Amino acid sequence: MNKTKAFQNILTNYQQKEKSIVQQLYFQYDPHGTTIGTFRENVWKKLFESVVPKKFVVERSIFIVDSEGDVSNEVDLAIIDQMYTPYIFQQDQLKFVPIEAVSAAIECKSTSATKEGLEDWANSITDLQMSHEGIARMHTHIVPGAGAAPTQTALRPILIYCHLDGAVSGSVREYFDMEIHASEKPKEKLHVRMNTDRRTLDDYYRALNHGGSRRERDHASGVEERMVEDLSVNYGGEEVSILSLNLKLNQLLMLINNPPLFPHYAYAQMFNGLEG
Fold this sequence. Notes:
Layout: H1 3-25, H2 34-51, E1 56-65, E2 75-81, E3 89-91, E4 94-98, E5 102-109, H3 115-126, E6 135-137, E7 142-144, E8 158-164, E9 178-183, E10 189-194, H4 201-208, H5 214-217, E11 234-235, E12 238-239, H6 241-255, H7 264-272
Parallel strand pairs: 1-4, 5-8, 8-9
Antiparallel strand pairs: 1-2, 2-5, 3-4, 6-7, 9-10, 11-12
Pfam families: DUF6602
Organism: Savagea serpentis
Domain DUF6602: 32-120
């Protein structure tokens, strides 16, 4: 097969898949909304599962916790690195997941969102604190928790807002790193938009890592000129949105891909400090 034709076929397939996903998201059946809401979340879940590496899992309906005893609002979907971090609690559909394991938190809305509600949801996640008390054996020695240089500091998840026509957008993009708008008209499209205040990989690196500390700001990251929008792919006069999402999201995941050491002692101390 001609190489150019093969890649053109890949782009065409992405466009067909995008249209199918939007059609599923706008499918109407249950007048009470509960069943169709779950169906839509599963459509979004399958989309993310199709683009992230297999080291990640995409979980539905979780609560994110930290070792200070704080708990986030419910998270519709979360991209979780399960390789190094245990769940704090899991019973059937109820899951409490440590902040150290969560690489992305995703809010899915149809038409019922408010700006205040979305801001509160985002703040409930960004207010969580990651501990530096993790202990692990490295190649030649033991890393003794807070006494050593951490592999990650002040990590926070990538925040993503997925929604249909009519849900709040635009003005709330400041609370999220990425917005995915499934638009039914004039044509079935997924619009992938980034935070209006962050344009380069350096902007995202500093937003997602180290808590914006002065020490890290003084060090050049080397990606100050790498524009995130340069990862958009266009074909036939329009964006190939799922491929753009694939490249943008996975590049952001690689900015936080060095997992923090799970702070077992910090969580034990938190639980032991609770009154009976």
